[in-house]
Design brief:
This protein is an alpha/beta fold and 647 residues long. Helix content is 62%, strand content 9%. It has a domain at 73-376: ABC transporter type 1, transmembrane domain (ABC transporter transmembrane region fold, Up-down Bundle), CATH 1.20.1560. The radius of gyration is 37 Å and the shape is elongated. The protein binds adenosine-5'-diphosphate (ADP).
């Protein structure tokens, strides 16, 4: 990092209090500059972020997640963390051994050597210091490892979401997706950051202690471990199972309490009017009672395990005292070693208890991996063909060739539709709600694939071309324009972020957005707040039209907004549409006959099929469905204008 001086933050810094324009604060006070420089220097250099997105995932992206594959991503950090953990586990457990050594070789009357005591004490201190330093470094390293992995995972899952087809993103799935992206990934982060390291540290600690015990006295080590390990293991296995059961009961219990509470509160009127209060209290008492029992159960489990393992350790110490004491008397064990055994026995207990506690974190992390794998294994329902070709620049002739389609293949929504739309033509779809107009439009943009037949542009079957080349030439204006966080300019240049100012200005002028922009405080650079709630509905639509204009697609698919606009906005939108539809193939889903009648051809859709096609004049003349709709509309308009005149 080379952010020396005050340069990076403008004119502040060394020169004192001059605030640079456009900066949120008045620069860095000179007395703090040195500290800031140091901080910046100690910042790790992150490589330039490279994010690629491919519609078809590569082999690497398709591999299932596993803990090992995840941690393996950063081999250097992993090796360093493991090395530090080994160092830590050894230095942390050297204490009792050194104590034993100091007693045996320094304090006992036969040696009486101060030097040994001092050296052992110094070594003890050194070990403690090394442990502290190694621990600090290890926490940092695993923190970085976890952060890097989780970062990678977030981008990976997000990329997968970008790849999935429209049918995946229904309302009910939004909640599940949010929970995958938040709680599941956080569970994993927890596991990677603390859990795995704890597992390694505690596991190694037990190994290191065992090694020290064997180094000091094999026979006593065998006896000690033989006494304590089986009992502790059995207690821990029982505790894990019992506490998992208890945890489930507590979780269900609180869910039931909350559900009952919310139902009673919401239905309070019905409860009162049917005199159900007493019944409700009894019911709630039972629900709360079950929750109490569950809590009591977990308390009992802990009450058995905690003191139980303490008890085991005390029993172990008693046995050790008897057996070890006997060995000391028979000169087969040094007294210092016996003391070290005592100290180690206490230390042996803690890792087992911690491992049992960490097991939950591990299970939750594993469960999250399973769920994330489920999400990542979901293929897009509309997939790009492996040998998809680039769609060359098209003129815009769209053909539906005996197309049938159903969201659920068993329930056809579109039935054998044949339709050809000529380049440059404007066609509107009209018909009752649910007839299949939007579905036809979604087939043109290949949000879905037909179950039978094909949709072609200039003779190219949509299933044979790449998504990117198809959508580059398609413009879609949805019914409700969606504005993203950013400025108005960003929103207009959404499809072509590289567009220059002149192009954006042309798009703004073309759809008649100029006046609106001039009125805004910062013009095009005005930020859009909360999806554009501060803009009127008409203004949002104009921005969406400008967005489509700037992308100059060959084919435009537009779902006319149904929102009621004032007359002025409506005429503006109509003028913008005239400009936008010029010289390109356009498919409009019209909700107003005033829009429909201006099209080159009108397609009347009913129950998934096309019932009439023709110009406004032709269809009115033919006296069919469209003529009837038109007649209703005219008479309604007449009533309305009579009403207006009368008032
Ligand atoms: P229109 O645009 O003419 O109002 P649509 O094309 O939206 O009609 O809908 C046609 C039929 O398909 C309707 O019966 C609708 O309920 C059904 N439908 C629309 N979208 C979906 C979807 N995502 N999943 C299942 N069914 C859908």
């Amino acid at each position: 990092m080379a952010w020396g001086g005050g340069g990076a933050f403008g004119a502040g810094g060394h020169s004192g209090s001059v605030s640079a324009t456009g900066l949120p604060f008045g620069g860095i006070p000179s007395e703090l500059q040195a500290g800031v420089d140091r901080l910046l220097e100690s910042e790790p250099d992150h490589p330039r972020a490279t994010a690629t997105f491919r519609q078809r995932p590569g082999a690497e992206e398709l591999r299932r997640l596993s803990l090992w594959r995840l941690v393996r991503r950063e081999p250097r950090l992993l090796v360093r963390a493991l090395g530090l953990i080994v160092v830590m586990s050894v230095t942390m457990q050297a204490g009792p051994y050194l104590t034993g050594l100091a007693i045996n070789d320094g304090m006992l009357p036969r040696h009486h050597d101060l030097a040994v005591v001092v050296i052992a004490a110094a070594a003890y201190l050194l070990c403690a210091l090394t442990t502290a330093l190694a621990q600090r470094s290890q926490v940092r390293t695993t923190g970085r490892l976890a952060a890097g992995i989780v970062n990678h995972l977030r981008v990976k899952v997000f990329s997968h979401l970008q790849r999935l087809s429209l049918d995946f993103f229904t309302e009910e799935k939004a909640g599940v997706l949010m929970s995958r992206m938040t709680s599941d990934i956080e569970n994993l982060q927890q596991l990677l950051q603390d859990g795995l390291a704890q597992f390694a540290v505690q596991g190694l600690t037990m190994l290191v202690i065992t090694a020290f015990l064997f180094v000091m006295n094999v026979r006593l080590a065998l006896i000690t471990l033989g006494l304590i390990v089986p009992a502790l293991t059995a207690a821990s296995v029982w505790f894990r199972a019992a506490s998992a059961r208890g945890y489930l009961r507590v979780r269900d219990g609180i869910a039931n309490v909350l559900a009952d509470l919310s139902e009673s509160l919401q239905g309070v009127r019905v409860v009162t009017s049917h005199n159900r209060q007493r019944h409700n209290v009894i019911h709630h008492r039972n629900v709360v009672g079950r929750y109490r029992d569950a809590n009591f159960y977990t308390a009992q489990v802990s009450a058995i395990y905690g003191p139980g393992t303490q008890m085991l350790s005390v029993l172990g110490q008693g046995a050790l005292l008897a057996i070890g004491g006997d060995m000391v008397l028979h000169h087969s064990l040094a007294i210092g070693a016996l003391i070290a055994f005592f100290l180690y026995l206490n230390r042996f207990l803690q890792p087992i208890q911690l491992l049992v506690q960490q097991y939950n974190t591990y299970q939750q992390g594993q469960a999250s991996i399973v769920k994330l794998n489920g999400l990542l294994a979901t293929p897009p329902s509309v997939e790009e063909a492996a040998d998809a070709e680039e769609l060359p620049a098209v003129e815009g002739r769209i053909v539906f060739d005996r197309v049938s389609f159903g969201y659920d293949p068993a329930v056809p929504v579109i039935r054998r539709v044949d339709l050809a739309i000529e380049p440059g033509e404007t066609v509107t779809f009209v018909g009752p709600t649910g007839a299949g107009k939007s579905t036809l439009a979604k087939l043109i943009t290949r949000f879905y694939d037909p179950t039978e037949g094909s949709v072609r542009i200039d003779g190219h079957d949509l299933r044979r071309v790449t998504f990117a080349s198809l959508r580059r030439q398609l413009g879609v204006v949805p019914q409700e324009p969606f504005l993203f966080a950013g400025t108005i300019r960003d929103n207009i240049a959404f499809g072509r972020p590289d567009a220059d100012d002149a192009e954006v200005a042309r798009a703004v002028a073309a759809v008649g957005l100029g006046e609106v922009v001039e009125r805004l405080p910062q013009g095009l650079e005005t930020p859009v707040h909360e999806r554009g709630q501060s803009l009127s509905s008409g203004e949002r639509q104009l921005i969406a039209l400008a967005r489509a204009f700037l992308a100059h697609p060959r084919v435009l698919v537009l779902d006319e907004a149904t929102s009621n606009l004032d007359l002025q906005s409506e005429s503006k939108i109509e003028a913008a549409l005239d400009v936008l539809l010029e010289a390109r193939t356009a498919v409009l889903i019209a909700h107003r006959l005033s829009t429909a009648m201006k099209a080159d051809r009108i397609v009347v859709v009913e129950r998934g099929g096309i019932v009439e096609v023709g110009s406004h004049g032709e269809l009115v003349q033919a006296g069919g469905r469209y003529a009837a709709m038109y007649a209703t509309w005219v008479s309604q308009a007449a009533v309305e204008s009579a009403g207006l005149a009368g008032s």
